[in-house]
Specification:
The protein is of the alpha/beta class and 238 residues long. The chain has helices spanning 44-55, 75-86, 89-104, 121-132, 174-186, 219-237, and strands spanning 3-12, 15-24, 30-36, 59-62, 109-119, 138-142, 160-166, 191-196, 209-210, 215-216. The strands form 2 sheets. The chain has an 8-stranded mixed beta sheet, with helices on both faces. Strands 9-10 form a two-stranded antiparallel ribbon.
């Protein structure tokens, strides 16, 4: 077994996107799992998650949401990169969709099923993928944003959804969690939510250490979340 990594370039309109595909070259065609990034963009963290997925037998695809592999170095830069997509959810959904098409075009990838996981902003991205596309097997949001989009979406969500949430996350308070649950139930989605008590935002990121901002790493919550995610991916991808 050798884990391989290569850049995958793809287009959304006039924007060139640069994702990173990671896979075990000893396996034949296998399901892809997209990794949608935090607000900082596709960094070493997302590529590490894609590597972990490759070790589980999937093709991990750390996607680029901003174009040309752009990343933010501080809160102001990250906000500036993320805001245009959060403000235009149809644009966000379309950018997720072209990533699905791009990875399915790779020779190592099975055409279906496909899943997606996402962290923070990326959690919102994968949930919007489930809301807008009917050929996705499942999505996992890890400390993701849960707000419903303001554009027209599927009346019935066919993708299964797993939300892994820090209950004390100041960016996603309990009332938003309840609203999300109501939305998913109304859409007849097969959904589940694991809430970790005493856990804040960005709990899977070892570099998160800003209690005043509400972002703190939790090794225990990360271990539990990864276990739940692995079980879920095995269920939806086989």
């Amino acid at each position: 077994m050798t884990i391989q990594q290569r850049e995958v370039c793809y287009q959304h309109g006039d924007v060139t996107l640069r994702g990173v595909m990671v896979y075990d070259d000893s396996l034949s065609e296998r399901p892809a799992v997209l990794v949608a990034p935090t607000w900082a963009g596709c960094t070493a963290f997302e590529i590490e998650q894609a590597e972990r997925l490759a070790g589980l037998g999937y093709v991990g695809f750390a996607i680029d949401m901003y174009g040309e592999g752009a990343t933010g170095g501080d809160k102001e830069e990250c906000t500036a990169l993320m805001t245009p997509l959060v403000s235009d959810r149809a644009l966000l959904q379309a950018r997720m969709s072209v990533a699905v098409d791009a990875i399915r075009a790779e020779a190592e990838v099975a055409q279906a099923p496909t899943a997606a996981i996402g962290y923070c902003f990326g959690g919102l991205c994968v949930l919007d993928l489930a809301r807008s596309r009917d050929d996705i097997a499942g999505v996992v949001s890890l400390h993701g944003l849960l707000s419903a989009p303001d554009n027209e979406i599927l009346s019935g969500i066919t993708a299964k959804a797993l939300v892994l949430h820090g209950y004390d996350d100041p960016m996603v308070p309990p009332e938003q969690v309840l609203a999300f649950a109501a939305e998913m139930s109304a859409a007849q989605c097969d959904w589940q939510l694991h809430a970790y008590g005493g856990v804040l935002h960005a709990f899977t990121n070892p570099s998160a250490n800003d209690p005043d901002f509400g972002t703190v790493y939790s090794a225990t919550a990360t271990r539990r979340a990864n276990h739940a995610m692995d079980d879920f991916l095995h269920e939806v991808l086989g």
